[in-house]
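Translate structure to sequence.
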């Protein structure tokens, strides 16, 4: 048996970040969180930014804690949300804080881009779901003076790796989220880049997950303390890391990476790009170790999180456990919303927006906290059924199980609803899928784990899973699904 190996995963989400130390003994992986911090956007002169320098400071705090604890960490890797980036000048300095994907600068940009690039042609090349905040759209509306001065574009994890090591590269999985790549060639879509007038010099060498970027810079070690750890690219998009940790033995499976966003899809060896996938707005993003993540972005638990923030602004600080308990008491299947309706994408009074949607569509209008929460949960479960049916239709295969991984596995009520709504068993876990996948890619890169299949066996052996079977009352969901489908274009 190998001696224990320690690795550090930096997992950055849209609202918080963590440092998690993984200890691997050759057959089991154990996790210990060593640092946690909030990730709060900053609005300045009407623009929403990421506070990237504070994020970098917090990463160094996590590294420093491993040094103080004498943990002899062998490697570290960073995963984050997708699409966002920073521009760097010819001197290697950042030209400005990265803009947040929820900023309003890309509202309506798709129509402008379509004037110079046919959307069907763009999808045929990139195979990416059309979303206003894709990197390609952000770059299209970028300030001209910045583009003229910029020498490189780095997505967020690549930027942070550069801060740590001084090495610039573009990791494949995170780069693939931005609709800038040719999905089949797995290289830059130069025809798209040229058509949109973007400077070719911005786009550097593409590297796979598991690339060794070297040691920390001396000035970084001056702040963190002396450490021999190596910085590795992992599956740098957080969903790509989460999918690595799906504990499946089957080749064909459906997953939901459940958090602020719900990313629902399946794993392929090659992109699936045709007229139907374009019409259904599915995306082909890069996965670890040569895989393709064929999926849809769904608004996810953002709606619950933002509703909770609204109630807190009104002076009522409810726990998630309280909200779930009240939802269980509310009458089932009375009203639904389209969770991907644009009205739910921006921060604000989410409960009132839900009521307005229900009024507009002639449904019962939820009044209590429990009724609002139940409406959100049931709407998400029905959205999952809609997407699961589309995945199975596109593949011509029937799913035997839906794997739910990530923070959303804590919402047991939602997992049970998903099994009922879809009529398919749900296997929930692990909760820390993104950090686990991050660590497993490091273990593969270090030679401790052979491949993706072995990594998933280790995940299955290391973490408890919970299974939810469709209940006898699930036939009620069929009628609800018919009503739900009638609302999707409201």
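Result:
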């Amino acid at each position: 048996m190998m001696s224990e190996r320690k690795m550090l995963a930096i997992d950055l989400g849209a609202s918080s970040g963590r440092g998690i130390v993984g200890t691997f003994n050759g057959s089991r992986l154990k996790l210990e969180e060593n640092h946690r911090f909030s990730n709060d956007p900053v609005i300045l002169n009407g623009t929403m930014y990421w506070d990237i320098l504070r994020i970098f400071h917090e990463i160094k705090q996590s590294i420093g804690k491993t040094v103080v604890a004498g943990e002899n960490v062998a490697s570290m890797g960073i995963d984050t949300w997708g699409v966002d980036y920073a521009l760097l000048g010819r001197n290697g300095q950042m030209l400005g804080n990265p803009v947040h994907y929820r900023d309003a600068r890309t509202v309506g940009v798709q129509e402008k881009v379509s004037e110079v690039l046919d959307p069907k042609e763009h999808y045929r090349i990139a195979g990416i779901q059309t979303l206003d905040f894709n990197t390609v759209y952000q770059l299209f509306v970028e300030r001209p003076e910045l583009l003229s001065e910029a020498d490189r574009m780095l997505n967020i994890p690549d930027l942070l790796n550069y801060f740590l090591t001084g090495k610039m590269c573009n990791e494949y999985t995170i780069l693939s989220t931005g609709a800038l790549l040719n999905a089949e060639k797995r290289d830059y879509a130069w025809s798209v880049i040229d058509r949109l007038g973007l400077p070719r010099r911005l786009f550097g060498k593409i590297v796979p997950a598991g690339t060794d970027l070297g040691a920390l810079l001396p000035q970084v070690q001056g702040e963190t303390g002396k450490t021999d750890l190596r910085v590795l690219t992992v599956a740098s998009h957080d969903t790509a890391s989460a999918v690595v940790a799906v504990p499946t033995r089957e080749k064909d499976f459906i997953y939901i990476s459940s958090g602020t966003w719900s990313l629902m899809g399946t794993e392929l060896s090659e992109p699936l790009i045709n007229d139907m996938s374009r019409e259904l707005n599915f995306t082909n993003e890069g996965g670890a170790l040569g895989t393709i993540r064929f999926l849809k972005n769904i608004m996810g638990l953002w709606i619950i999180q933002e509703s909770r923030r609204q109630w807190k602004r009104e002076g009522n600080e409810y726990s998630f456990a309280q909200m779930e308990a009240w939802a269980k008491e509310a009458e089932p299947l009375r009203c639904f919303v389209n969770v991907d309706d644009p009205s739910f994408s921006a921060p604000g009074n989410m409960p009132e927006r839900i009521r307005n949607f229900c009024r507009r569509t002639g449904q019962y209008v939820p009044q209590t906290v429990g009724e609002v929460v139940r409406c959100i949960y049931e709407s998400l479960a029905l959205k999952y059924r809609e997407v699961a049916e589309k995945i199975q239709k596109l593949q011509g295969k029937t799913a035997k199980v839906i794997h739910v991984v990530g923070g959303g596995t804590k919402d047991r009520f939602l997992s049970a609803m998903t099994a009922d709504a879809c009529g398919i068993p749900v296997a929930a876990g692990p909760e820390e899928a993104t950090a686990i996948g991050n660590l497993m890619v490091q273990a593969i890169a270090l030679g401790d784990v052979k491949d993706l299949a072995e990594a998933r066996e280790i995940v299955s052996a290391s973490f408890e899973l919970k299974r939810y079977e469709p209940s006898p009352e699930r036939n009620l969901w069929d009628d609800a699904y018919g009503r739900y489908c009638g609302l999707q274009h409201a």
